[in-house]
Amino acid sequence: MAKKLHILVVDDATFTRDLVKKGVKLGYPGFVVHEAANGRQAQAKLTTGGFDLVLCDWEMPEVSGLEVLEWMRSDENLSDIPFVMITSRGDREHVVQAVERGATNYIVKPFTNEKLFEVVTRALTKSLGVSAKALKKLGGAESQVQGGDSAAVLAGGLSGDLNIAERLETDASVPSSRKERATPRDKVIAQVRHSGGTIGCLVKEIDFNQVVVVFKRPERMPTLLDQATFDFTTDEDGRTSRVNAYIHALQAAEKRQDTDILRMTLRFVDDDPDKQDHLGYYFTVIDG
Fold first, then answer.
1. Distance (Å, rounded) from C-alpha 255 to C-alpha 235?
2. Residue of 164, 168, 138, 173 whose CA lies nearest to 61
3. Is 0.85 surpassed by the pTM of this model?
4. Which of 159, 171, 180, 198 is the most buried (most CB within 10 A)?
5. CA angle 229, 231, 235 (to 5 degrees)
6. How far apart are the C-alpha atoms of 52 and 84, rounded to whole Å?
7. Whole-angstrom Cα distance, residue 156 to residue 159?
8. What is the pLDDT of residue 147?
């Protein structure tokens, strides 16, 4: 009986972990996929042995993905396990940093199932010394991988208003003294990246849990529940942050059925303290 391959998915955001696990199982249903909610859990599980691949988020509290990577590469029992860094940091500096520390490969959020399948395949065929065809046989792959479907029909029944949409409890670590939300009076431009491309948008409302934006219909529509990042910059201090999220709601921004102006709500799934701090400052800068 062929050996089952064991994959460890590490991310502090449950939603992202679930997406990655689902993507791996979609491509390789025969793999055994384990999960860890943070770097410390990952280290504890890896110590038990038996893993063939690690898919790990970079930005996690306490023990980051980079620290997990360095720890693995310094342990002779774990140093040969392929390690794929998963993060929203796609600039050259961070790519080089991950590779220099021993990352096997690198994948930037948001990504498609096809991209995840490609990266997993490349990492395992190299480490196991087998062909892609042999790996598919090991993983029971039957060419099931599909990309995100276009959102041809907008979900008009889902509200994108912060005062109507379901509230997620604000993290207790967020100091009560700082601004909790913002409703810009002037035009505030930001960017949303999803698996189909990048969208320039205007921020309508934002808090620590979600953001509501409006944008012109793009060539490739985003998909409900798709991974995304909300990218924003504050010129006052020169900071740029990319907050991991998922697409919670899509609807027309006007009453006309043929409108090209759309409204989207992104739910944040990112607890990075630096990004939380930057969001708080951002609220102060843009609030009308």
1. 35
2. 173
3. no
4. 159
5. 170
6. 12
7. 7
8. 45
* H/E run at residue 39: helix 39-47
Please classify residue 10 by burial: count the beta carbons closer than 10 Å to its beta carbon, then call 0-12 exposed, 13-18 middle and 19+ buried: buried
Amino acid identity, position 220: R
CB neighbour list of residue 76: distance below 8 Å, 6 or more residues apart: none
One-letter amino acid of 143: S
CA pair distance 274, 2, nearest whole angstrom = 45
The pLDDT > 90 percentage for the chain reads 52
Concatenate the DSSP letters of all residues of 62-128 into one string: SS-HHHHHHHHHTSTTTTTS-EEEEES--SHHHHHHHHHTT-SEEEESS--HHHHHHHHHHHHHHHH
Residue 139 parent element (H or E): helix 132-139
Radius of gyration for the alpha carbons in the chain, expressed in angstroms and rounded: 20
Token couple for 286: 């843009």
